[in-house]
Amino acid sequence: MASPYTEIEVDDRIVKVTNPDRVYFPESGATKLDLVEYYLAVGDGIVNALFERPCMLHRFPTGLSGDKVHQKRLPAGAPEWVETVQLFFPRWKRTADELCVTELGAVIWAVQMSTVEFHPWNSRRGDTEKPDEWRIDLDPGPECTWDTVQQVAHVAHEVLDELGAVGYPKTSGGSGLHVYVRIPPDHGFQDVRRAALAFAREVERRAGGDVTTAWWRKDRDPTQLFVDYNQNARDHTIAAAYSVRGVPSARVSAPIGWDEVDDCEPDDFTMFTMPRRFAGIGDLHADIDDHPFDIAPLLAWAERDEAAGADAPPEPDDD
Predict the structure, then answer these.
(1) What is the tens place of the pLDDT at every residue in 136-162?
(2) DSSP code string of 208-267
(3) In 64-194, which ranges are E strands?
(4) Virtual CA dihedral for 84, 86, 59, 275, nearest 10 degrees?
(5) Taking the model in full, what pTM does it have?
(6) Minimal CA–CA distance to 218: which of 147, 137, 141, 152?
(7) Which of 12, 201, 266, 291 has a CA positioned 20 to 30 A from the CA of residue 143?
């Protein structure tokens, strides 16, 4: 017996969505079709966040009550208009063709293939080895409060302002905050990661003991916030702006204004609340490409710190 389906018109594409009534979020009863309608509602925002970036998919073939699949390769059966970018993974000496979103239809097709979360690279297909996005991940420890996250966000904002860099904050969809900065694609992952560590150390110096840059989890105070510079390593990805997260409340990684940091809570932003917000204020990250920042000052900070005895960032996995 054929699966039930509905057809969704997305610009000039038709996407067949099978099992539209399958419950993906048991806590609320939200279905696969509800998830499709959410991504349609924030279409410009999610496309801007993913545009021309290799993208890992976090899929839940039977909803959150079933197994989660981390998928690098594009699922089989994609329409010919869904674009990909080929990546090489040195450890395995293999390539993978990952989703490369250039239009909203590709996002909706990925949701049809049970994708809930979208995790793009911080580089684009024009040169996947040269990041154009510096990612600041404010990652609270297990006993770190949301108040601390908010306070550290302001410290990070202060340092960015002094550098002349324009930061674009968003909730993580979990318990932390992310800040994205557009950079010219002039450096490899290693340099961008060194720059991110130099920034993290400056935030650590100013944060009055609330921040750690300790590499090993066992060396971190659980009440502190880790500025996770390693999210700038090759093939390390975090949820995109506007991505739903695979958690029972269907939280969203939501762009916010700096003036909202003190008053917001992670649970304010879900797939149920974001469509109205997006309709009212649009994409808060829409102009990120207009504000590139040269990381040369951060690389100078890195050289200064290393000359003073600080370690260079440990080598991450290459994939």
Answers:
(1) 999 999 999 999 999 999 999 999 999
(2) TTSEE--SSGGGS-TTSEEE-GGGGSTT---PPTT-B-SSTT-BB--B--GGGTTT--GG
(3) 69-71, 84-89, 94-100, 115-120, 133-140, 168-171, 177-182
(4) -50
(5) 0.96
(6) 141
(7) 201
